[in-house]
Specification:
Blueprint: H1 6-15, E1 21-23, H2 34-42, E2 48-52, H3 58-66, E3 73-75, H4 82-93, H5 97-104, H6 106-109, H7 114-125, H8 133-140, H9 144-153, H10 159-175, H11 182-188, H12 194-205, H13 209-215, H14 218-230
Parallel strand pairs: 1-2, 2-3
Helix pairs in contact: 7-8, 7-10, 10-12, 10-14
Length: 241
């Protein structure tokens, strides 16, 4: 996603799953810290990387942003060679809940056909894009029954539960940020209604959406979902929509 203004940045973060933001403090034409400080306040779980030209006016801005925990800076034509960019982006992305979940399930996912594994990885990164088993199977170019048999073969819960649990884990990550309401998260992740998100939160994390926002850390949420994935029989039957 590209944005031409700070308003577009804010709207984009609220409207679609974003696991990493690369931003220029001079986006509005002048080096300013206020907009980035606001993003950090509203979305503290979102990793921010600054990508900008090195100028004398930028020093005070970077100092102010450092006090808010924004310390990753890449300077244009100085340290932005491809290997450096890849290193910084991969290091930041490695902390995302979706990447950590993929790492913990690597042994279960590795026997899957390549296209099916790729689509599952996509579903973890952008859960609103792959919400149904039919869409999952279509994108992986297999029929629904074949998809379900593969899940059984590698010891995963049904595809329906996999997608639902992945979506509620992403919802938990978003709810750590005060910039999102429960209603915002439900809409953003494609829930037909807020009560479905609440039902999924209780099923997979044992809490309401409001409770998990206040009392469940990212590590605890990830651990609960991983345990569900490794013990598929423990997942109760729920409605998914």
């Amino acid at each position: 996603m590209r944005a031409a203004s700070w308003d577009e940045v804010l709207a984009g973060i609220r409207a679609r799953p974003v696991e990493l933001a690369v931003l220029d403090p001079t986006l509005g034409g002048e080096a300013r810290a206020q907009e980035l400080e606001r993003l950090r306040l509203l979305f503290p779980s979102l990793p921010l990387i600054l990508y900008t030209a090195l100028t004398p006016q930028l020093a005070a801005v970077l100092l102010a942003l450092g006090k808010h925990g924004i310390r990753h800076v890449i300077f244009v034509r100085y340290d932005d060679h491809p290997e450096r960019l890849r290193e910084v982006l991969e290091r930041e992305a490695s902390g995302a809940a979706s990447r950590r979940l993929l790492d913990q399930l690597a042994d279960r996912l590795s026997p899957l056909p390549t296209e099916l594994r790729w689509v599952l990885e996509e579903a973890l990164r952008t859960p609103e894009e792959v919400q149904t088993v039919g869409r999952l199977a279509a994108r992986a170019r297999v029929d629904r029954r074949t998809c379900e048999r593969w899940f059984t073969r590698v010891g995963l819960p049904t595809p329906r539960h996999f997608l639902a649990a992945a979506r509620v884990l992403y919802a938990h990550r978003l709810l750590q940020d005060p910039g999102f309401t429960i209603e915002d998260v439900a809409v953003r992740l494609g829930y037909a209604q807020v009560k479905t998100l609440q039902q999924h939160a209780r099923t997979y994390l044992g809490l309401t959406a409001g409770e998990m926002r206040l009392s469940l850390s990212p590590d605890e949420a990830l651990d609960l979902v991983v345990r569900r994935f490794r013990q598929p029989a423990a997942v109760a039957t729920i409605a998914v929509s």
